[in-house]
Design brief:
Structural class: alpha/beta
CATH topology: Rossmann fold
Order of helices and strands: HEEEEHEEHEHEHEH
Shape: globular
Strand order of the largest sheet: 5-8-7-6-9
Radius of gyration: 17 Å
Largest sheet: 5 strands, mixed, barrel
CATH class: Alpha Beta
Distance between the termini: 19 Å
Helix content: 10-25%
């Protein structure tokens, strides 16, 4: 992640959203009040850039459907963040995407029923033709590929907290590559706030039906 930051523009204030296993980090903790509650951020300076880290699941380790996505994005926006690099854990639906490899999503399909907008009382339609920032994606691909097996692909977002059925995975595999629970509404809310957003996904397991059992500990640790 340090090299990802080094490659970003010097004037950028960068937000990093940590996924499962990332609950705190070094740096000074600050609290940002939002319309969705108080959000804790950790401030660091890396390569002469301001970096704000936020643990997606919080100190109480909220399950995916209970994450305060609106509060997180609003807190980063209020703090002046212009680029977000998100870390997500996913299940692989393709044999060639091995456990431990990285995936940089280029699109997503949302099967959740979560509220995915800041605009409750306004008629606002956000263009999601390119949901991920091409500049951040290119940077993530370049740096990740230098270090480990890296892929691109489509991310299917499911509601959770249960894992998917074998039948669901058979369907999802026809049009997507990885499955997870935390990308949306985060990516949509970032777009509504005009923040560049990209995701780095870690393949923690193969999806249901592709192995005998799912390693729950491998997903959550």
């Amino acid at each position: 992640m340090a090299d990802h930051i080094k490659g970003m523009g010097r004037t950028m204030k960068i937000g990093i959203i940590g996924g499962t296993g990332f609950y705190e980090t070094e740096g000074s903790e600050i609290t940002v009040d939002t319309n969705y509650g108080a959000i804790s951020l950790f401030h660091q300076e890396k390569y002469e850039r301001d970096v704000l880290f936020v643990p997606r699941h919080g100190k109480k380790k909220a399950v995916p459907h209970a994450v305060n996505y609106h509060g997180i994005i609003e807190a980063l926006h209020r703090s002046g963040v212009t680029a977000i690099m998100a870390l997500n854990t996913v299940g692989s639906m393709k044999e060639e995407i091995g456990v431990g490899s990285l995936v940089i999503p280029d699109d997503f399909i949302d099967f959740t029923a979560r509220k995915s907008t800041f605009f409750d009382d306004e008629l606002v339609h956000v263009d999601m033709s390119e949901p991920f920032c091409p500049v951040l994606r290119k940077l993530a691909l370049k740096e990740a590929s230098r270090r480990c097996e890296t892929h691109e692909g489509v991310y299917v977002v499911t509601e959770g907290p249960r894992f998917e059925t074998r039948a669901e995975i058979r369907m999802f595999r026809t049009f997507a590559d990885v499955v997870g629970m935390t990308l949306s509404p985060e990516v949509v809310l970032a777009r509504e706030k005009g923040i560049c957003y990209a995701s780095i996904c870690l393949g923690s397991n193969y999806a249901a039906g592709m192995q005998k059992t799912l390693d729950v500990e491998g997903v959550t640790r």
